[in-house]
Write a structure and sequence with these properties.
Rossmann fold, nine-stranded mixed β-sheet, two-stranded antiparallel sheet, single chain, 2 domains, alpha/beta
Length: 417
């Protein structure tokens, strides 16, 4: 496995567009002024009053019980939610860090570590807290050219636009971008969830390649929202899959699992608040949802309902700068028809489901062990010809048919999810 160095991430552009180093030029209030004048919730006070001893406690195996960096990010988010100024948030972060000792001895602590926390909170909550402000912030960042132009420019002359270089921040080159949206579709039992977990694990570990696509974004924080399977069945499958990934510590840190095993309707206020709380807490770079039908309280053939749901997911991606992979089903077809070529119309439900997707990857079982992969949409990169992958005993797909780890018995075939 390749060991990543800091220089490997040099191609990634900065995401700071809301908060700049100018915050350090403003007069920073004392911590007593912030405690007296700013609005505090009970959760904020509890977090702020955490002692150093509580913040650095570890389990017997040495793993962290309290994640100081995530806790400081939450405090920045809380401050933005409560309408604090940037200097007020900075004053609290400095006080916390002085006590917790996370970044206190780092060079350029404020500019390298604390300002990015405030910036991410602002991109999420803005200065007014409205989603429209957040979406506009994300839109401006998405339109920022590589260099030499005003990041707030929104209207261009035709030739000026053509001759300006814009950069897509890839995770998987020519397939999955930062803030992107992918659909993984198939009929039941082919291996959609298995392959989605594999993509998540390889992104979490920073593997050099996922199937045909190069990982040029490095290691990412991944959250699997498992609404199809609850704890016992998902534990069974992940126990098998984990055998393919020896770096258990990194996988445990970067691949988070939410095994709810029941629907969470994201087209309702309660469901949306639940997801917001989850995203606020864990801040994933990649969110995997299994599956689309489990996040809609209405039929997926309802055009207006699906349009609203997909629009909401788009706002979530912009708000959290999160890439989204959603598992979904194809329309039911006779067995002989399933073996023919597939197209977007084979995706079950409203046409709006695939409209915003950057890619739609279809899986089709060709034998008990082999699965055909067909890209029926790839908006941002070339579309490869259909190809086959093979699943080993640990439910991990590969393309090297000559050097398989194991062969399945023909009697029962591999487990499929």
């Amino acid at each position: 496995m390749k060991t990543l160095k800091l220089s490997d991430f040099g191609h990634i552009t900065s995401a700071k567009v809301v908060v700049s180093n100018k915050v350090l030029e403003e007069t920073m209030p004392t911590i007593d002024e912030v405690r007296t004048l700013a609005n505090w919730t009970t959760d904020m006070l509890t977090l702020f009053n955490t002692t150093r001893e509580e913040a650095i406690v570890t389990d017997d195996d040495g793993s962290k019980v309290f994640d100081r960096s995530s806790a400081m990010a939450r405090m920045a988010y809380y401050g933005a939610e409560q309408g604090w100024t940037d200097p007020q948030i900075m004053a609290v972060l400095v006080d916390i860090d002085d006590r917790w000792g996370k970044y206190v001895n780092r060079r350029d602590r404020e500019t390298r570590f604390l300002i990015p926390l405030i910036d991410r909170a602002r991109q999420k909550h803005g200065y007014s807290g409205s989603l429209s402000d957040l979406a506009m912030s994300a839109l401006l960042q998405a339109q920022k050219p590589v260099e030499g132009e005003d990041a707030t420019k929104m209207v261009w002359g035709f030739d000026d636009f053509v001759n300006t270089e814009f950069k897509i921040n890839w995770m998987l080159e020519d397939l999955f971008a930062t803030g992107g949206f992918g659909l993984l579709v198939a009929h039941p039992g082919v291996g959609k969830t298995t392959l989605a977990i594999q993509m998540g694990a390889q992104l979490a570990l920073g593997h050099e390649k996922f199937l045909k696509w190069n990982n040029i974004g490095g290691a990412k924080k991944v959250l699997l929202l498992s609404l199809e399977m609850g704890k016992p069945p998902l534990n069974h499958f992940l126990s098998l899959i984990s055998n393919s990934y020896p770096d258990k510590k990194a996988l445990n840190r970067n691949f988070l699992v939410a095994p709810f095993g029941q629907p969470i309707p994201l087209d309702t206020e309660q469901g949306q608040q639940f997801l917001s709380n989850l995203m606020d807490e864990y801040m994933p770079d990649v969110l995997i949802i299994d599956s689309l039908q489990k996040i809609s309280s209405k039929e997926l053939t309802d055009e207006q309902a699906v349009k609203s749901l997909i629009h909401y997911l788009s706002n979530i991606r912009a708000k959290y700068n999160t890439s989204l992979l959603v598992i979904h089903h194809n329309r039911k077809k006779p067995n002989d028809a399933q073996k023919k070529s597939v197209e977007l119309s084979d995706v079950y439900g409203s046409t709006y489901i695939a409209t915003d997707a950057d890619f739609v990857m279809n899986l089709h079982a060709t034998t008990q062990e082999n699965v055909a992969v067909t890209m029926i949409k790839n908006r941002l990169g070339p579309t490869p010809e259909p190809f086959e992958i093979h699943r080993d005993e640990f439910l991990t797909f590969g393309m090297d048919f000559d050097n398989l780890q194991t062969q399945f018995g023909r009697d029962n075939g591999p487990l499929s999810i």
